[in-house]
Task: structure prediction
Amino acid sequence: MNAEIIAVGSELLTPHRQDTNSLYLTEKLNDLGVEVRFKCIVGDDLEGLTAAAKLAMRRSDIIIFSGGLGPTEDDLTREAVAEALGLKLQRETQLLAKLEERFAKRGMKMSANNAKQADILTSAAMLPNSLGTAPGQWIAGKYDGQERLLMLLPGPPYELKALFENECIPRLRARIPAQYIATRTLKMAMMPESQVDARVAPIYKTYTDVETTILAGAGEIQLHLRCRKDSQTDAEARVEELAGKIEDEMGDAIFSRKGETIEQIVSYLLQMRGMTLATAESCTGGLLAERITSLSGSSRYFLGGAVVYSNELKTQFANVPKALINQHGAVSREVAASMAEGIRKRCLSSYGVGITGVAGPTGGTEQKPVGLVYIALAGEEGTQVVERNFPGDRKRIRQFATQQALEMIRRALL
Amino acid sequence: MNAEIIAVGSELLTPHRQDTNSLYLTEKLNDLGVEVRFKCIVGDDLEGLTAAAKLAMRRSDIIIFSGGLGPTEDDLTREAVAEALGLKLQRETQLLAKLEERFAKRGMKMSANNAKQADILTSAAMLPNSLGTAPGQWIAGKYDGQERLLMLLPGPPYELKALFENECIPRLRARIPAQYIATRTLKMAMMPESQVDARVAPIYKTYTDVETTILAGAGEIQLHLRCRKDSQTDAEARVEELAGKIEDEMGDAIFSRKGETIEQIVSYLLQMRGMTLATAESCTGGLLAERITSLSGSSRYFLGGAVVYSNELKTQFANVPKALINQHGAVSREVAASMAEGIRKRCLSSYGVGITGVAGPTGGTEQKPVGLVYIALAGEEGTQVVERNFPGDRKRIRQFATQQALEMIRRALL
Result:
């Protein structure tokens, strides 16, 4: 079965806002074995919306509207669907009473325009929305001889998600032939996409029944595997087999096979080994600490660190000798190593990380161009430093540098 | 004039990828006085694409396709537009020669499928693409008696932007009646959206010729003003007048009027006053330092800081007395103040910031629930501490806390 998602709202046609509900809906629909074939974004405009609804009824089995169910004049999804399907809108007195009660509870009188949120399409099932005022609506019927499933959902993401999860998924499950889908996500750090693809494409191309997608970010490659079969066992067996072969090829370059982030993997490994971490960052300005502490519970293995932007602080917080900075410059292999060792000593942590480089766009020289970063890891077994020339803008260079640091920690803990 | 953007590519119908080209295109089209009325996302599917093209030709003056111009079998935009408009595709021998040359230069033989990138629609102008292999195409003509402008652009954002900027905007300017648009963006920190709207709505509602949009993020409200007139002077005068009245109402709650971020404003103010900053962060884990150092040149006023997750490091790096932590707890007004004062002293900076709190989702107690954060600012004139209970998840709480800190620095510098 194929689905179409229609996001409604003029704000989604400005340069400032983007429809994100469709990403969530696509994931859930795919899990049910439904492919999304079209996405449309339409403003608060009755004619445009009605035309979009008519077109969708012709070409898609499942049609999901998000947004346009509020109380204002601009909220026209109900009216447009009524027009497109030749249905009437009926004001539900019970629902109206509930709306009035909701306002009364907060000591407010309901304004007249709110009443339209109690308008339900004839033949539609009302989907209760405990998180907001506008209920969802569900229609299942034949149009031009074709079975169609149509959902009207509110636009705010938390309302839409709750409604789709609780009300729509069970209804869809009851109507869609059971599909069995297995997925795997394999992630690798600090490898070029072309190199990964050259090695894994000959493998995944022989699995024509497993869909393989490669996504590349700054210092991270993700392989998404998806297989659909008549039984869950068959689907799992196929992705497992392919994932296994890819793992044989790529070895421990793969840091995660269940979608975990590299921060999570580093967190598991540190806790498993009972080890701790401290960081001294110059050009990444706290991004590494921020990424590590984005996980709840990180205080169990992350002691803290220093953002040592000035040379004085490199000495004060990370014990870097002044003479070393004078001799080699703040951006150097030697200073990175000294930062890692110094912060490890100061924090009494198992590992210490030091990062120094030129994040740009200014501050580069011929000898030390923008993108040059030294990343050091100090531990009981000694200190390693890598030198990298990262491409891209300031943000990307900082992302790359912290990714490299996390990958070095991970490899040290293997 | 109204525009429609059709983003082409099956990867844009997965949960992993989103069309972002349309945000850039919308901004540029709006600047030309063109409104975007529809956005569609269509997979690599000839039938679906052709239907989308036909519908767009009926309802929109300007139609922009992004993507689907590459060399693979899946790249079908050219074929779909030819079909929808009843045009033929012609292989341009000059273009073909250039493509072959491009491959030869890199020592590669061009595979046969690449030749389709030299297919140009009859009646189309070829738009040279210096950054990639597929050229853009431009068609201006009458369809069903209506003037239509149609553009085929490559999907990779940097190619699309260069082509649109260099080739499409001048052509659009020549055909669209000159429009004069003035815009202003006013930003405020740490105020609830409802409170801002209650104060500014009575003002902006009297300016029916200025479109006002409110966007709300974690600790930030943005007011976007846009006015279109027959002359630039008139348009500027109207937004200027409205912006002025809003500024009179909101006073120095407005931190920026030209779209600058609060990090940028704090940067300007610190440099103007010749002052410096240092930070000691617990629950924000380096996010404040990361935000400040996201700006190039921040080393001029940001000395550095410490991420003092453990109690020991609060003492070691920010001089917080052990007894103070024992007496009040790490999450307390007193410890926040001590962190701010200690880091200021240690770094010899004009200002010191201390942040301690419970970012959650775990670690909350009845007395100190998730979301409770103390933010302190220490300067020559003394130390101020605010206590806040921020809503939302870990990420949002950390964003709120750093926004509060930046707003306190800004106000101290006014």
Q: What stands out?
A: The mean pLDDT of chain A is 94. Residues 394-413 of chain A form the longest helix (20 residues). Residues 2-175 of chain A form a domain with the Molybdenum Cofactor Biosythetic Enzyme; Chain A fold (CATH 3.40.980.10).
